[in-house]
Structures are given as structure tokens and as C-alpha cells.
Amino acid sequence: MLDIEVIEDPAAAEASLDPIRTRILQELAEPASATQLSTKVGLPRQKVNYHLKALERHGLVELVEERRKGNVTERVLRATAASYLISPVALASVAPDPRRFSDRFSAFWLLALAARTVQEMGKLIAGAAAAKKKLASFAIDGEITFRSAADRAAFAEELGVAVTRLVDKYHDGGADATASGARKHRLVVVLHPALKENMQHSPEKEQDND
User: Fold this and answer.
1) Which residue among 50, 79, 155, 209 is least packed, with the fewest CB closer than 10 Å?
2) Which residues of the chain have pLDDT under 70?
3) Structure pTM?
4) Which domains, ranges and CATH numbers included, belong to the chain?
């Protein structure tokens, strides 16, 4: 079972968004049969089987074992991942394209970069899993409080300079870089306001008054 599976197929994405199937995927973090699931989700076994077949058809659940009980064979399944994330590939015709934006202060460009990250990491994770290899990646997540918009702007400027300096130091742009075994990596650095506590479950937009 993967920690996170990125869904690229539109039909699989649609199947995963059904509330009942989402609940079934949640319950299938641990292997279970249709009979066991029917008790947990409050549905007849036949209806649970219907949803399980749809999820299995789209590769979201997998068979763990088959148990013989008299004349009946009980199938035990589990989710293919602990969590799922829908890739922008599932909405390819309307997915955001970072090339449409070039303003580093644009929130839309940040979202486009995040979407591309999900898309690319999904493919990389799937490839690494198929090859049974580890995927080399690195991320930093933290929070910083600025006294003013001026401090925030100064921080962003210094961060940009520092990152550029590191890129210039370590980037191998030689013509023979690929031949020597070097591999290109994607670098994305983002900074955005943290959600206020009362907005965690609120649909209202947060406004920046700075």
C-alpha cells in the first residue's frame, strides 16, 4: 500500500469522489470483505459489492486474499493507498499551465506551480514504485511571522538572492552533464499567507490588508 496515490485517470477520479466510495476507501485502510464493510458503512452487502467492483475496476482497491466459506468465496480487499490526491492530469484540458504566468508575486502562478508539482510527483512516484526504487526528493515546511509588508518583501528579495546563489553554485549546465550521469531536478520555492484559524472550515476568502 502506498502512503499517497495520485489519481490521473478522470474516470478513477470521478469514482473516488463519490461519498460512499470515499468512505469505503477510508475503511479499507485495513483489509476487509464486503460483509465486514456493510456493517461499517451501513449498506447491504450487495450495494457494497457494487461499489467495490467500481473501485477495483479503476485500480483503487486490490485483492488481498480469497476465503472459502462453504459454497461461497469471500473476497478480502484493501485500498491501494492510505490517501489519494487527484492530479491536474485528470482535468488536462483545463489544468493550469505555469507558462501562462510569469509574475513571481502572482497567487495564480503559485497555484499553477503547485498543480505541476502534483502532476510530476505523481508520475515520479508511480515510476519509482514500478522500478522498486526510492525517489530522491526534499521539502521544507514552516511558518514565519512578519511585522510588516515591507519586512515580507525584504525577506522575499533576500530569499530569491540566496536561492539564485545556490543554484549558480551547484547547477551543472555543461554540454556533457547528462552523459556524466547528472540529472535535472525541479526547484520550487513558495511563500504565502497562512490560513487564519477561523478560516480552516470557512468558504470565505482571506484578504491581505497589508
Assistant:
1) 209
2) 175-180, 198-210
3) 0.74
4) 2-84 (1.10.10.10), 95-136 (no CATH), 138-210 (no CATH)
